[in-house]
């Protein structure tokens, strides 16, 4: 109940501030079919139930569409490997994996020099400390907004996740929650340790 009141207060506060700004400056919005909207950094925008300031980091449909066709060459190579089974994770961690899969694992088990593991750990600790509020924000804000986007819902409908039978939906949500918990738990982003026999 306290969390609900806190988020309600925060949402109302943001709406109030944006409303004050909109008295002098109207919100901009556009159709999903408009690839080049007339918007520049600093404009006040209202889309998908959210209001925000457009910045140089925001991308229009015209900017995003070419990026949708950029794949992951390393992962694509793994998928084409004869050693890849239906269970991709099992295939990658199999001690009998072929050279293609082993090369993929060796590349991504190496931590880049620019990664500050101390900062990563602090971020994970903050997440765990505020886990209830993070969960509320995820399930009642970002997921709802994301599932309102047509291109996202097309994927959900095609895969049957979140649009199929209840058991499948619950499993999908559980899978996502498990992935987030694994990544955000202290030490969760460290690569697995390889044993002398090549297993993990």
Strand order of the largest sheet: 1-2
Mean pLDDT: 80
The helix tally amounts to: 9
Helix content: 55-70%
Oligomeric state of this protein: single chain
Largest sheet: 2 strands, antiparallel
From N to C, what is the helix and strand string?
HEEHHHHHHHH
Structural commentary:
The longest helix has 23 residues, at 2-24. The radius of gyration is 22 Å and the shape is globular. The protein is built from nine helices and two strands. The protein has helices spanning 2-24, 61-67, 73-80, 88-93, 99-108, 117-129, 131-146, 150-159, 166-184; strands at residues 44-47, 50-53. It is mostly helical.
Which labels suit this protein?
200 residues; mainly alpha; 56% helix; 9 helices
Give a short summary of the structure.
The chain contains nine helices and two strands; from the N terminus they run αββαααααααα. It is mostly helical and 200 residues long.
Question: Secondary structure elements and their pairing?
Answer:
Elements: H1 2-24, E1 44-47, E2 50-53, H2 61-67, H3 73-80, H4 88-93, H5 99-108, H6 117-129, H7 131-146, H8 150-159, H9 166-184
Antiparallel strand pairs: 1-2
């Amino acid at each position: 109940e306290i969390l609900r009141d806190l988020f309600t207060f925060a949402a109302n506060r943001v709406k109030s501030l944006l409303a004050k700004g909109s008295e002098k400056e109207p919100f901009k919005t556009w159709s999903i079919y408009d690839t080049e909207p007339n918007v520049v950094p600093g404009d006040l925008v209202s889309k998908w139930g959210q209001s925000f300031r457009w910045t140089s980091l925001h991308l229009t449909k015209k900017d995003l569409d070419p990026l949708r066709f950029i794949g992951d060459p390393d992962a694509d190579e793994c998928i084409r490997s004869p050693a890849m089974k239906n269970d991709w994770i099992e295939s990658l961690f199999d001690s009998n994996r072929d050279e293609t899969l082993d090369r993929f694992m060796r590349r991504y088990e190496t931590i880049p020099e620019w990664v500050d593991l101390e900062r990563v750990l602090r971020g994970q600790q903050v997440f765990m400390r505020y886990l209830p509020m993070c969960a509320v924000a995820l399930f009642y804000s970002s997921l709802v907004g994301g599932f309102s986007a047509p291109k996202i819902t097309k994927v959900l409908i095609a895969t049957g996740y979140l649009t199929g039978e209840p058991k499948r939906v619950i499993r999908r949500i559980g899978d996502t929650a498990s992935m987030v918990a694994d990544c955000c738990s202290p030490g969760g982003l460290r690569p697995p340790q390889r044993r002398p026999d090549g297993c993990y």
